[in-house]
Amino acid sequence: MCESEKTKNVSYYYCPNCKCEVTPNYYEYCDFCGSAVITVDTYSPEECRRAFELLDLVNSGKVKLSTAKDKTTSDVISSEYSEEFDRLRKNRMEVSFFKYGSARDNYGSGRVDAIKTLELCVEKFKKTGNTEYLVDAANYAMLRFMYPLTGEYFKSTCSNESAGIVGTPINMENNLL
Ligand SMILES: [Zn+2]
């Protein structure tokens, strides 16, 4: 279980100045710095720390939060998601049903290795630059998701369990992560 799940719904005191969980004195002031503490029952201490650090950055003018006026939800979605990719992916699944037979027969039985085939697609993409191979790769990932092998499972994970990223995301550069 991740840290944030463990601490959910548990009340504790947090000092916004020290940015940590504290044991307050009788008057609910931080013993270290004398700031008023807050009671938290939803977020983990780590989430609180990030929130207050972000607040500091905003207050100091180092970071400007974009407002709803700057970007609407559909603007965000159209720049963050490709319906076209989904359409191409679905097309190819239909074609392969008629060409190769049902996914259940091919992947459910382990007749075709979806992950090794996915890797072939990625290699081919790297050689050619043709993004169609990425569409195929996504389909093989979906097929393995649908027909996992014994011992494989789906579980939502916290960001600290992510596989990692190569490069520096913009929010990491701005110290928001
Ligand atoms: Zn304090």
Written account of the structure:
Among the domains are: 6-59, no CATH class; 81-146, no CATH class. Helices cover 48% and strands 6% of the residues. It is built from eight helices and three strands; from the N terminus they run H-E-E-E-H-H-H-H-H-H-H. It has helices spanning 3-6, 45-59, 73-80, 83-100, 103-108, 114-128, 132-146, 170-173; strands at 12-15, 20-22, 38-40. Strand 1 and strand 2 form a beta hairpin. The chain starts with a helix and ends with a helix. Zinc ion (ZN) is lined by residues 15, 17-18, 30, 32-33, 35.
Which labels suit this protein?
177 residues; mainly alpha; 3-stranded antiparallel beta sheet; elongated; binds zinc ion
Tell me roughly what share of residues is in helical segments. Answer: 40-55%
Number of helices: 8
Largest sheet: 3 strands, antiparallel
- Following the backbone from N to C, one meets helices and strands in this order, namely HEEEHHHHHHH
Alpha-beta classification:
mainly alpha
**Tally of DSSP β-strands:** 3
Integer average pLDDT: 83
Order of strands across the widest beta sheet?
2-1-3
Question: What hetero molecules are in the model?
Answer: zinc ion
Q: How would you describe the shape? A: elongated
In short:
With 177 residues, the chain is mainly α. The chain is built from eight helices and three strands. Among the domains are: 6-59, no CATH class; 81-146, no CATH class.
